Structures are given as structure tokens and as C-alpha cells.
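Sequence in, structure out.
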Amino acid sequence: MHSLLLPIVSLLPALAAISITRPLWKVRELTNANILRLGLLVMLGGMTFCLIGIFNNTSFWTGIASLALLTVNPVVFKAYERRLNTARCPQCRTCHLQARRINGHFYRVHCPHCGFCDEWRR
């Protein structure tokens, strides 16, 4: 039963960080970097809390599996960071940014609200 909860519990730090910082996109006083820092703090705190359970666990393989599943959190949070940087304008801080993929790793972002234009690398 304990090993069945591992995939669910392992994604909780990233999902908690995303769910806490997603409403902050509407706050114009916060920059994208501040939102990401807050999300990283929440995610790292959640991962630390999950690691406490690993050290209290008696099964070696359950601890190894939970450590392996915790490595998924930075990948999930990186996708969230990409979404934030291609949706929210860093200049006027509204969610009007339009992103177009130039090639595999580059995006051209344009804000029709304030005229901001930039290239962003994934």
C-alpha cells in the first residue's frame, strides 16, 4: 500500500508550487522572477518534507524509489517556468504575451498590450 502512494506523493511538491504561484500571475507588482523564486521555495520545502519520510522508512527499495520519483519535480516545474515565460509579459506584467516558435529551441514573444518583443530560448 505504501509503494502505491509513491507516484502521487512524489508530484506533490511541484503541484503545490504551481497551485500556489499560479494565482500570482494576475498581481502586476510581482515580476516573473519573483513568482518563480517563490515557487522554487515551495517546491524545495515540499521535497524536503518528502525526504523526511524516506529517512523514517524501513524499506530500502521504497526509499530509493521515492528518491527516483522526486527527480520528476524539477522537470514539471521547468515546464511551468516555460509556460510562465511565454504567457506573462515581463514589462507590463499581464497575461497577453503571444509566443511563436521560431525553431526547435527559440520562441519569439510579443505583447500586443505594451509592444514588448523579445526572443526567448527554451
